[in-house]
Amino acid sequence: MTSKPRDDLRDQPLDNPDMNLFTDGSSYYEEGWKCTGFAVTTETKVLLAGPLPPTLGAQGAEIVALTKAAQYAIGIRVNLYTDSKYAFGVCHATGMLWKERGFLTSAGKTIAHGQQIKELLEAIQLPSELAVIYIKAHTNQENQLAKGNELVDQAAKAAARQVIFAMTLTHQGELDLELPDMQKLYEELPEEERQLWEKLGAEQQNGQWTLGGKPLLPKRYLIPIAQWHHEKTHGGPENTALRVQRLWAAPGIYTAIRRVCEGCRLCKEYASLKIKAPAGKRPPATYPFQKLQIDYVEMPRAMGYAYLLVIIDQLSGWVEAFPTGKNDSKVVVKALLREIWSS
């Protein structure tokens, strides 16, 4: 018979807890990479966040987030909030069922996220008192629960993007970045650049600098990042800038991108090829009303009419016009059959 991981585990909030923690996992594709990450926050502050192996997916990331939160809350009374029904169900029902079955399916194969579920069931024992509560995501409400859930959602997405940050930098050989050690980005940051960031309203937390919710890109990495994104599509400066700014807050990136685009050998070669398509030809009509030019003109609505159907004979230039209530193909066919080709 199955039971909860601990007898006192609740699915409703504890009164006067030591902490309220929000958990979330995120998994999505961006720039051709699968990004997966987790986060743990309070209502106002990010406590834990980082990237995860892309093979986990969103459900695995949700389990990891709850595990990290329970480990963080060792020895205290805590409410853990999640918007994942899957993770909530693992804590209160299916987790112990899978444990009794050895985390195996009826076919004897390991269940999805078996190791992560095992670690979660162990971590649940660490707080002195614990409630794991399900809350709805993206409710657009203004209470503390909604704000905390929105913060953790954004933090998990940002943490997942760290995979791309590392790939773009290590691809260029500019930085030996081992996830999730994003602090390496800001080693030997010039004082002048730090002061500029502060004037722009940047924030520093756990050794990482962010502006507008995105990590700040130091000046010395502008060129390699611009080059990496430009080589993906060989688009112009505006296109490349949009790709960079989806991921980074990067003061000075436009100058770097222009340098990269102007120096791109492949772009220069294609720009020098002047391929001019031959002018289109249309054989002239040989008798009246053989070829017609047809279009609608929108008019002020009156007496049930809103459009003017105009038909011009290409050979003679003769014009026929008919007021209509609609501007679809059925009206055109009726006009041709009744007014143009009827005789």
UniProtKB/TrEMBL annotation:
Source species = Grus japonensis
UniProt domain Integrase catalytic: residue ranges: 284-343
Q: What is this protein called?
A: Uncharacterized protein
What sections of the protein cross the membrane?
none
Alphabetically list the UniProt keywords.
Endonuclease, Hydrolase, Nuclease, Nucleotidyltransferase, RNA-directed DNA polymerase, Transferase
Q: Identify the Gene3D superfamilies for this entry.
A: 1.10.340.70, Ribonuclease H-like superfamily/Ribonuclease H
Determine if Manganese is one of this entry's keywords. Answer: no
Q: What range(s) does the RNase H type-1 domain occupy?
A: 15-161
Q: Which CDD domains match?
A: RNase_HI_RT_Bel
Among the GO molecular function terms of this UniProt record, one is: hydrolase activity
Pfam families tied to this protein: Integrase_H2C2, RNase_H
